[in-house]
Amino acid sequence: MSASKEWVRVAYCEDIPLHEGRAVLVGDREIAVFNLGDRFLAVDNRCPHRGGPLADGIVSGESVVCPLHGWKIDLQNGNVQRQAETPACVKTFATRVEAGTLLLEVISETSRCPRSNGHVAVSRDGSSLETPKEHEYEDLGFS
Ligand code: FES
C-alpha cells in the first residue's frame, strides 16, 4: 500500500455561506470547511476539547469558536487560541477552488482491494460529489 496526496471535490462554493462553516465527509472522516470571503479553510470537524462540531461554530476573522464550550481554533494552522495554555490543535487541509467547486487535499492510500465508498465526498445534507474516475481504486487515508 502506498500513500499519495490527491485533491477531492467536497462542495459547491455557493453552498457555503460567507463567514460560515459546513461539514463534509471524505471517506469516513468529517471535515469542517469555512468560507472566509476571499478563501476557504478546512480543519477536522472535531474540537480538541470534547469533540464539538467546529463547522457549527462562530467564525471570527480567521478563527472559529466551538459551539459547545467556546474554545477558539485558528483555522490557518489548527492551533487552539483559547484556552491558550492548551497545547492542542486540529488537523488542517489545503483547499483549492476550481470552477465554483471546493477541493481539499487529502492523503490517498492505494489499495489492492477497492472499496466502493472509500472516496466519495458527501456534504452533511446528503448530496454527493463524485470524484474523478482515475481514483476509482484508491482508498482514502489520512496522515
Ligand atoms: S468541545 Fe469544543 S470547547 Fe468543548
Describe this structure in words.
This protein has strands spanning 2-12, 21-26, 29-35, 40-44, 58-60, 63-65, 72-74, 80-82, 92-93, 95-98, 101-110, 121-123, 128-129, 138-140. It is mainly beta and 143 residues long. A six-stranded antiparallel β-sheet has the order 9-4-3-2-12-13, with no helix packed on it. The chain is globular and about 40 Å long. It has one domain (2-123): 3-layer Sandwich (Rieske Iron-sulfur Protein). It starts with a strand and ends with a strand. The structure holds FE2/S2 (inorganic) cluster. FE2/S2 (inorganic) cluster binds next to loops.
Bound molecules: FE2/S2 (inorganic) cluster
CATH T-level fold name? Rieske Iron-sulfur Protein
List segments where confidence is low: pLDDT < 50 over at least 5 consecutive residues.
110-120, 130-143
Structural class: mainly beta
Please work out how many helical segments DSSP would assign. 0
Beginning-to-end CA distance, first to last residue: 14 Å
Query: How large a portion of the residues is in β-strands, by DSSP E?
Result: over 45%
Number of domains: 1
CATH superfamily, called what? Rieske [2Fe-2S] iron-sulphur domain
Can you count the beta strands? 14
Q: Order of strands side by side in the largest beta sheet?
A: 9-4-3-2-12-13
Summarize the structure.
The protein has 143 residues and is mainly beta. The chain has one domain: 3-layer Sandwich (Rieske Iron-sulfur Protein), CATH 2.102.10.10. It has no helices and 14 strands.
Could you give the topology of this structure?
Elements: E1 2-12, E2 21-26, E3 29-35, E4 40-44, E5 58-60, E6 63-65, E7 72-74, E8 80-82, E9 92-93, E10 95-98, E11 101-110, E12 121-123, E13 128-129, E14 138-140
Antiparallel strand pairs: 1-11, 2-3, 2-12, 3-4, 4-9, 5-6, 6-7, 7-8, 10-11, 11-14, 12-13
The site of FE2/S2 (inorganic) cluster has 10 residues, from loops.
